[in-house]
Amino acid sequence: MARERIRVGRRCVLAYHEVQRNASKYRYRVTNQQFDEHLSFISSLTKNSSGERVPEITFDDGHRSNYEEAFPILEQHRLRAVFFVIAGRISTDREFMTWNQTRELVAAGHQVQSHGWAHRLLTRCSENDLRQELLSSKCELEDRLGTEVQAISAPGGRWNDKVAEACAKAGYKQLFHSNPWLQSRNLFGIQLQGRHMVTGGMGQHELKSLLRMSQSQVLLHRTKYRVKEQVRVILGDRLYHKMWIKLAKWKSEEGIEVDVSESGKSERGIQQS
Ligand SMILES: [Zn+2]
Questions:
Q1: CA of 48 to the centre of ligand 1 (A)
Q2: Domain 13-212 class in CATH
C-alpha cells in the first residue's frame, strides 16, 4: 500500500546561514560542495514534472559568504533565493555583506528582505524597540535597494502574537520562523511560515526525506518540536541559548550572535536563525 504523503503544495522552505569552502564543526555552516549538491537536487526537481515540491532557498543574517560563496553557485544552477539580512549590520564589517553586494543580488533577481535591525529577539523587545526593529529595517532596505520589503524572518526564529501583529502593522505580509512543522497560517493578515534550518550534516538524502515525509512522521516531528519549545520556556531564553552554544558547537568567531536581552543590553547567545 502506498504510504500516506504530505499534501502536494505544502511549502518546504530551507534556511541557510553561512556557506564556506571549508567544513566546520559549527552546526549552521554548510560547505560549497554541500550547497552545490543541494542545488543540483533542487534544480533537478524544477526540471521534472512529477509534481514534487521544490524547496525554497532562504538565507539568514546577511553573512559575507552569502555573496562570495553562495551567490555564484546559485547563478550556476539558475536558482533564486531570498536573503534575510540584518539591516543595521550591512556594510559594517567584513563579516557582513555590503550595500553594493545586496544590490547586486537584487539586480540578479534574488530577494533581499528583513531579519530585523540589530538581530534582537523580537519576543523580548518593548513596543518601541519592536517598532524600530521592524520599521527601521524595512525602511532602510527599501530606501537603499529600491525594492519593496514584505517579508521578515524572526531572529532566533522567535515570534508570538504580539510580534505577528506588530509585523502586520509595519506592513509585512510574511513572517518566517524556525518551526518547520507548524502549519502555515494567517494571523492578523500576515502569513506565518516555518523553515527547515539547514545544518552542516544535511546531505541530498536528508533533503529528499524532508520532501517525501509521511503525515505521521510530520506529526511526530511536530510533537518533538513542541517538547523542545516547552524546554525553552522552562529554561528561559538565556539558559536555552547557552545550551545551544554547546549543541551547535559554536565558537565566537563563527555565526552571528542573537541579542537575547529584554532591553537591548548586551546579553548575547548563539543564533539559531
Ligand atoms: Zn539570525
A1: 33
A2: alpha beta
